[in-house]
Amino acid sequence: MKNFLTFFVLFWSFIASDQLGTECPADKKAVVCYWGSWSIYRPGLGNYKIEHIDLEYCTHFVYTFAGINLNGVIDSLDYHNDINLGGYKKVIALKEQYPCAKILLAIGGWNEGSEKYSFMAETEERRKAFVESVVRFVIHFNFDGFDINWEYPTERGGVDSDKENYILLLQLLHSELSKRKRILTAPVPANLYIISKAYEIEEMCNYLDLVNIMGYDMQQRDKTSVHAPLKRENSDPSKKETLETVVQHLLKSGCSKSKLVLGIPAFGRSYTLYSSYSSGLGALVKGLGKPGNFSQSEGFLGYNEICEQVRSENGWKITYLRNSAAKYASKGDQWISYDDAETVQQKVRFVKEKDLAGIMFWSIDTDDFHGDCFGESYPLLSAINRELY
According to the UniProt entry, where is the signal peptide (predicted)? Predict the structure, then answer.
């Protein structure tokens, strides 16, 4: 009997300690990792499979993108990948290994446009039908939350009433998702004109659990410029916004710092220079830079493409802009603005100084997930985690 009691106590002590070991820290800074699910179609070493996902680096993981169908409700944009190949199911299964991670489904994105979201949000009836479909979708596929990536209210075919209708939509989404213990997040662009025109900041932040600042794509079109500047360089006379000014504006407009998440890019923006003899900031350009082998898109290079080029090809000149927390590289007529481990850590220190909610990362599939450049897989995400925790 004594031996049985000893075993009983030890057994339940083990169970209790195991359960305590998986308790999720409530005050941990967020690392929100977006995944572009279309990256499974990239060629060669750029091909990113679900098997590559490592949630050790992420507190939140966002599967992108669902869309709106002709009936005005949520639907998969890639039924083959999401359903037939089991994309949704496989990503949710990662929670068995990482029970503290929150896995969200995002709707929208740049390619989805704005107009059909504007139309959906225009009437109470259409908003309710959409929200009901979202809740059903999230519950059915067992996501922990929903990310509404409408880019952007009042813009790109939207109407002025989107600003008010967006708040009504968020209010309804928050009401229906929160009662089922699901979270609601959304991004905002790092563009003060769009922010002022499209959003009632204080009300928006009241209904969202996290507000992800898209801290990138701030470059100019006609001359070289940094696409994710933290602060303005001393030599820069322009009044163009920086991530610092965007954060300041959102805080002054009534958004709590406990909800603001600063976005960091795992990609660069590139140009083709007008003259290879003029390659500093503000140099004239002919157009977008050459496409990479993986992303195959002019003017865009994943960090995995950038670090491989700069590491393996001689002749690249790299400049570190310390105020901007950014780097640019030039060779011949090609010019790239990007972040690396050093600049990423600088931005994380800014988040800690301002006591913001955390970091957002776009996107996990363009980090050097193979570790080809420096022998460490996910060097940017690793740098974020090292500096944050």
Answer: 1-17
The catalytic site residues sit at 151
The tens digit of pLDDT for each residue in 378-388 reads: 999 999 999 99
The span from the CA of 324 to the CA of 247, in Å, is 14
Q: What is the mean pLDDT of residues 335-350?
A: 98
User: By three-state DSSP, how is residue 125 classified?
Assistant: helix
**β-sheet bridge partners, residue 62:** 34, 104
* Alpha carbon 149 to its chain's center: 10
The alpha helices in the chain, defined as continuous H runs, are 2-21, 79, 87-93, 115-120, 124-141, 162-178, 192-198, 201-207, 243-252, 303-312, 341-354, 379-388
CATH number belonging to domain 27-265+339-388: 3.20.20.80
pTM: 0.93
CA distance 309 to 285: 21
| CA distance linking residue 58 with residue 143, whole number of Å | 15
How far apart CA 367 and CA 159 sit, in angstroms, is 36
DSSP state of 140: H
CA dist., res. 341 & res. 380, Å (int) = 5
